[in-house]
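Appendix B. Worked example

We walk through a single record from start to finish. Start with the input: the chain for Glutathione S-transferase, Variovorax paradoxus, length 218.
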Amino acid sequence: MAKPVLTISSKNYGAWALRGWLMCRLAGLDFSEKIIPPDDPAMKAEMLLLSSSMLVPSLQHGGVKVWDTLAIGEYLNEIKPKSGLLPVDIQARAHCRAICGEMHSGFASMRGALPMNIKARFRGFKIWSRAQADIDRIVAIWRECLKTYGGPFLFGKQPGIADAMYAPVVTRFLSYDVPLDSVCAAYCKRVMDLPAMQEWVAAAKEEPEEIDELDAEF
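Next comes the structure step. The output line below is what the pipeline stores for this chain.
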């Protein structure tokens, strides 16, 4: 079987690309990357927040092609069941799927007001009320999960699909100087300290400084 290929967009701006890529890394999948150029319509759609489930990211694994981020996670859990992407306990697994679905389909105000931009730092960034409501819900999810499952990650001792789904939010909170309590700040640090996240961030910092179509969004 040929080596799996994950098609992704910008590592600096691509929130959905990061989710799919991080899931593959956490699953222990040996894959190669195909990065689409900045002028590709699929990349523009992802970057400009027009869709959470365009064809980016997409995973080609043998004769199987999976392109929605949650579908990628579920597929990886099936082919790598020992990787722990989803909790073993049925109740925890249902809870995990619920908060991942909430991230997948919600928080539009936060995503629009605080676009992912790993290289940027906006000190004292003013957050409008609707985006703040999304942020409040996200940190409530984190606190509940960390308390219920004991941490250090959302569903226990190892990172999984839920952590991958919320990883771009972690980068946003850092980029836009979002105030966090000690519990959530510590969780953000744990996510950013993951070797895979450090690899992603290092690559993001090597990207070109400007993508013209994105500048207007900030």
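Two observations about the output. Residues 50 and 141 are 25 Å apart (CA to CA). The beta strands are 5-8, 32-35, 58-61, 64-66.
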